[in-house]
Specification:
2 helices, about 65% helix, single chain
Length: about 70
């Protein structure tokens, strides 16, 4: 590879990256000074604690809802 090819590759990747950043800024309606650090979806295990709390609350509602 010559220096011109690597320079062109770098410019192309920078253009693509800036275009992606602009699309994400429009998607999330960012204001001045905000930036996006990560755009991945969380795994199912990220919310296991919340699922457990929801099941506990549901169980308490069933238990005390029939206390008549």
């Amino acid at each position: 590879m010559t220096d011109e090819e690597t320079t062109q590759d770098v410019k192309a990747s920078e253009e693509l990256e800036s275009k992606n950043a602009e699309n994400l800024a429009n998607k999330f309606r960012l204001i001045a000074g905000e930036e996006i650090h990560m755009t991945k979806k969380p795994s199912i295990f990220a919310f296991v604690g919340m699922y457990g709390l929801g099941i506990l609350v549901l169980g308490l509602h069933f238990m005390f809802g029939r206390a008549d």
